[in-house]
Amino acid sequence: MYLKNIIEEYQSFQDKPAFLNFKFIICFLGSERNSAIFYGIYELIEILKGKKVPEYSKELELYHTKASKDFYLNLKRIQLERKTWFTRIWT
């Protein structure tokens, strides 16, 4: 997904309401040996439901099932300065 540049689209489609009561998503990519790489922070702008949920891209259809289209999260990536992102997250 990283190489195809569809991570944001992938996390926008949800099938469980557990992810609907938040303001931010912090995204990590799985790496080798039980580690993860920080990818980004996203702010929730809007939740789309029902007929307002857009269609998957052709690339994303390989990773998502049709059942995962109950909700669409309109997300905005937050740009952080590399020097200060730890300070902003943890304080």
Structure description:
2% of the residues are buried. The protein has one domain (7-90). It has a four-stranded antiparallel beta sheet with strand order 1-4-3-2. By secondary structure, it is mainly beta. The model has no long low-confidence stretch (mean pLDDT 80). The protein has two helices and four strands.
Keywords:
2 helices; 91 residues; four-stranded antiparallel beta sheet
Please state how the strands of the largest beta sheet are arranged side by side.
Answer: 1-4-3-2
Count of helix runs: 2
Into which percent range does the helicity of residues fall?
Answer: 10-25%
Number of strands: 4
Which percent band covers the strand fraction? Answer: 25-35%
Quaternary: single chain
Helix-strand string: HEEEEH
Low-confidence stretches: none
Q: Estimate the global geometry from the Cα principal axes.
A: globular
Our measurement of the CA-to-CA distance between the termini, rounded to an integer number of angstroms, reads 31 Å
- Radius of gyration computed on alpha carbons: 14 Å
Give the domain tally: 1
Average the pLDDT over all residues and give the rounded result.
80
Major sheet attributes: 4 strands, antiparallel
